[in-house]
Structure formats: C-alpha cells, structure tokens
Design brief:
Strand order of the largest sheet: 1-2-3-4-6-5
Number of helices: 9
Number of strands: 9
Length: about 300
C-alpha cells in the first residue's frame, strides 16, 4: 500500500489489524488490504444488506472500471469486494467518500455478520478474526465469552479421565508389541486417548491441562511397557502352566535383576523414541490450542 494511502486512512481514523485497515466513512464500515497478487491494487470490502437500487451501484462501479480507477469488483448477497487501482491523485479517501455517498443514495446499510440486522452495527475484533455485529449479537458474544472464561477447569477429574483414556490407548501399544512391532501409531493412540478423554470432562485446554495430559501419557507408556513384559512372560512359560498373577510376580522379580534392566534399555529407548514420534504432534497441537484459548479475547472497537 502506498504511503499516501496509509496516511489518508490514518487521518480518517482507520485502525490497523495485522495487514488490514478498518474504519468508518460516514455511516459505512470499510475494510482495506493489499492485493497480494499485485502491488498496484487494494482490496476494499464492504458488508452491506441487499438493496433494490443496486443497479445504481453497478453503474457507478462500471464507470470507475472504464476509467481504470478500479480493476474489478465482485458483488455477493451481503458483500462488495472491489479491487482499487492505487493512484497518487485518486487516493483511497476520495474513493471511499464517493462510494459512501452512492451507498447512502441507494440506502445500503452495513449488515450484521451473524443475524443480518442493519441497525447499530459495530466492529468487534478477537485474537483471530473481526466481525461486524449488531448491538444484540455483540453483547451476546461478549457475555458468552465471559461465561466461558468463568468456567473453572476440573483438573483432578480431567487428569483421571486423561489417564483412563491413555491407558485404553496403551492397549494398541501392547497388542503391537505382542506382534513384534514398535510403532509411532501406538504412541499416537495413547496421546489421542488422553486428550480425547480429558476434553470429555473439560470444555477447554489450559497449559496446566497439557502438563497433566503429558503425565498421563508417560504413565500409560510405562504401563504399556510393563504389560508387554508380563504378556511376554506369559507366552514364554505358557507350557509350564503359568498364571497371569505368576507372570506379574515374575516380572516384578525381573526388575530386581540389574542385568535384565540393562538388557531392557535398548528396547525401552526405542519405545520412548516411537512414543515421542507418535505423540509429539498431538501434544504440540493441543498446547498451541491451549495458548490460543488462554489468550483469546473479543472487544468492541470504537471509532
């Protein structure tokens, strides 16, 4: 965007949100952003209600296109998107002022993005997006967000749910281990089970929730490793009539043997590697989601 147009927008009270400028001219909100495909074009977007006199708007835009002041335009049910050619003389403020007069002439009004109401429209921005909302929808959105923030996470219940989910996921690890495989799929199953179960009892993740889930995943991984040895003992001494409780006792005895532990370390190391490979993406994605939820906000912007 040319410096002269940035200055004109700032002087008109437009506010910048990332790479987009949003502001109000007369009674209409406009959104301005660079056209990434061309250095000489700006995208001007207006959310408006349908008008029976839209032919007047079409003629105005067609005339601008013939004069090479705009490159193209698109009109949908509730939005106009115009590709404005940047010019040092026909600057953005002149264009917006002229366009706003045409919109007033055809009695076109900004429209609520939620309910399509055209009265008392304001800009509401969040950490992710912005919306043009009527007073009713805007107040409801702010109330819903506050109620969501007031919900206290059930960390203890969430941890137990996560642990149960992770242990269920560890069944995949045990089964694959009995078949002679160690796969990252098993690590993913443990992580997925943990986070899925936690979400069932808590509506949102927090950073502490992620830590609790990771602890549950580690416990489930250790349980899976231990269970794999128990089943291996059962299979090895099946002909001797060993029982499940005997296999557990014998496995516990093996862990008192230093040589057994040393021999187990390579397999245990591979297990950690594949568990990490399988669960890392799930943990990372949920941690990112938790950060976004904790930092999420919505506010009304005054012009």
């Amino acid at each position: 965007m040319k410096e002269i147009n940035i200055k004109k927008l700032q002087d008109a009270g437009f506010k910048q949100f990332d790479s987009e400028y949003i502001g109000k001219v007369n009674n209409h909100f406009f959104s301005i952003k660079d056209n990434q495909a061309s250095e000489d074009l700006l995208y001007v977007t207006i959310s408006i209600a349908p008008s029976e006199s839209k032919n007047i708007l079409f003629k105005y835009l067609d005339d601008l296109q013939k004069d090479n002041k705009i490159d193209d335009y698109e009109l949908t049910k509730n939005e106009i998107k115009i590709a404005l050619v940047e010019d040092s003389i026909y600057t953005i403020d002149i264009f917006l002022s002229d366009l706003s007069k045409v919109l007033e002439e055809i009695e076109a009004k900004n429209i609520c993005n939620f309910c399509e109401n055209t009265e008392n429209i304001d800009l509401y921005v969040s950490s992710k997006v912005h919306s043009f909302l009527c007073q009713s929808c805007g107040e409801k959105l702010l109330t819903d967000l506050q109620e969501e923030k007031n919900i206290k996470p059930k960390y203890l219940l969430g941890f137990f749910a996560s642990l149960v989910g992770a242990l269920i996921g560890s069944v995949v690890w045990v089964v694959l281990g009995m078949l002679g495989f160690i796969a990252s799929l098993a690590g993913y199953a443990i992580a997925y089970g943990a986070f899925y179960a936690y979400k069932k009892v808590n509506s949102k993740y927090t950073k502490l929730a992620i830590i609790l889930n990771v602890v549950a995943i580690i416990i489930a991984f250790l349980f899976a490793q231990y269970s794999g040895i128990v089943f291996e003992v059962l299979r090895e001494y099946k002909a001797d009539g060993i029982t499940f409780s005997d296999a557990i006792l014998y496995t516990n005895y093996l862990f008192t043997n230093k040589e057994f532990i040393v021999a187990l370390l390579p397999d245990f190391g591979f297990g950690i590697l594949f568990a990490f490979l399988g669960s890392f993406r799930t943990i990372k994605d949920n941690y990112t989601s938790a950060k976004e939820e904790e930092n999420f906000y919505i506010e009304k912007v005054d012009f």
